[in-house]
Specification:
Length: 114
């Protein structure tokens, strides 16, 4: 594949360490570590990833997500109470509630135009 006058080390992938370091410097991120024994410096993304991996963070995130889902479901229940259906206690999915709300708003708009 390589001609006689080209060595593997002459190709860009032959110098991955220096190539990646120079790309990281151009992009503004700090290298995670080097092979020369220098201290490791973590980028903001790596710090964020490590923090998110903790049990305390996951627990807090799960709690926030539960609160968000409960609020979302309460909003759908309130909207459902405002929509006329036969029978009134008919179980509707969220998409059915949204579609029925769109139709009901269009109907009310039509009534106001008359």
């Amino acid at each position: 594949m390589l001609s006689g006058d080209h060595q593997e080390s002459d190709l860009p992938w032959g110098h991955t360490d220096t190539l990646l370091d120079s790309l990281g410097a151009q992009c503004g991120s700090m290298p995670v570590g080097t092979h020369d024994g220098e201290a490791k410096v973590r980028s903001k993304e790596e710090k964020r990833r490590k923090r998110r991996a903790t049990a305390k963070y996951r627990s807090a995130h799960a709690t926030r997500e539960r609160v968000r889902v409960v609020a979302f479901n309460v909003a759908f229940a309130e909207l459902r109470k405002l929509l006329p259906t036969l029978p009134p206690d008919k179980k509707l999915s969220k998409i059915e509630i949204l579609r029925l709300a769109i139709c009901y708003i269009s109907y009310l708009d039509h009534v106001l135009d008359i």
